[in-house]
């Protein structure tokens, strides 16, 4: 390992830490750490010596990223994203403490009070009907992918990485084993597409195929190493697929929602149709049922009153 001393910059310390971690983490995690370091930590701390970093700097970094951390200059990052960054920064500084180039730190910082959660955006019934009709009238590998997402709630990286070897038409199950993402490194002014296993075990999952979808999949079934939405060995990356989806929405003249709204729409429909929360959570690949509940379950006052009336009526019997 390279010589470490108190005059070392935090940038150099990050490089050594990440190189050391590389052999022990998944490729997707490595690229997540690399993106955080190159796009946020290095650009914020610049040439600062690692020995000069204090808890005050830690807190300033958190507040800066929450208020204006987006790379496109359009405001701040989410609390979850910033928390992920603090995990990396803590690990780097702990690494520096272990090698005695900085004094012990307690990493004291505060995240401002949680803001009101934004409601998820979904396609309404008429919009869903239009999308499904268009897909069936213009069926190809790419529109088939849209239909799969409507019926399963797959993330865009998951549908782009889906190969025919992952689609078992005998058992009527889709296996989610990979995801595709494009990462941008601002310091190098370049981006890279990576294909990796899902970040969490809950994201690696089996999803039953709706009966009406099976014959359509059979129609397009191809070589096991071909990608479902491209119909060949070459993948279609998320950025390109988003453009295809946006073009389709323009043709249909409906809400210009993001591709991820297909996932939100699936989850909302599932819950509205009485599917239990745990099942929905597992189909979506959420790490916990709490994520599903916070995103999609918002009982209104009428529903709450009905529940309380049921309790009272049972007691009154």
Automatic annotation (TrEMBL):
The keyword Methyltransferase does not apply. Pfam families: Phage_int_SAM_3 (PF14659), Phage_integrase (PF00589). InterPro entries: DNA_brk_join_enz, Integrase-like_cat_sf, Integrase_catalytic, Integrase_recombinase_N, Integrase_SAM-like_N, Tyrosine_recombinase_XerCD. Signal peptide: none annotated. Residues 118-309 form the Tyr recombinase domain. One of its GO terms (molecular function) is DNA binding. Keywords: DNA integration, DNA recombination, DNA-binding. This is Site-specific recombinase, phage integrase family.
């Amino acid at each position: 390992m390279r010589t470490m001393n108190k005059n070392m910059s935090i940038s150099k310390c990050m490089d050594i830490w990440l190189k050391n971690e590389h052999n022990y983490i998944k490729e997707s995690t490595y690229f997540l750490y690399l993106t955080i370091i190159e796009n946020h930590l290095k650009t914020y701390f610049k040439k600062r010596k690692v020995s000069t970093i204090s808890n005050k700097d830690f807190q300033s970094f958190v507040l800066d990223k929450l208020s204006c951390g987006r790379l496109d200059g359009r405001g701040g990052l989410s609390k979850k994203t910033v928390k992920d960054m603090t995990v990396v920064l803590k690990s780097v500084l702990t690494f520096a403490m272990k090698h005695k180039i900085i004094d012990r730190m307690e990493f004291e910082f505060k995240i401002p009070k949680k803001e009101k959660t934004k409601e998820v955006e979904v396609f309404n019934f008429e919009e869903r009907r239009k999308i499904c009709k268009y897909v069936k009238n213009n069926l190809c590998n790419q529109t088939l992918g849209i239909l799969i997402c409507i019926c399963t709630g797959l993330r865009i990286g998951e549908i782009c990485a889906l190969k025919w070897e992952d689609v078992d038409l005998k058992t009527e199950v889709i296996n989610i084993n990979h995801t595709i993402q494009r990462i941008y490194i601002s310091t190098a002014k370049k981006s890279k597409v990576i294909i990796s296993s899902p970040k969490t075990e809950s994201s690696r999952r089996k999803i039953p195929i709706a009966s009406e979808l099976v014959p359509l999949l059979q129609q397009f079934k191809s070589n096991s190493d071909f990608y479902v939405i491209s119909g060949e060995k070459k993948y279609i990356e998320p950025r390109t697929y988003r453009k295809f989806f946006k073009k389709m929405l323009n043709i249909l003249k409906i809400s210009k929602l993001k591709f991820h709204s297909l996932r939100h729409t699936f989850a909302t429909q599932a819950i509205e149709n009485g599917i239990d929360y745990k099942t929905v959570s597992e189909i979506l690949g959420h790490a916990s049922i709490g994520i599903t509940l916070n995103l999609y379950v918002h009982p209104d006052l009428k529903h709450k009153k009905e529940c309380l009336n049921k309790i009272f009526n049972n007691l009154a019997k």
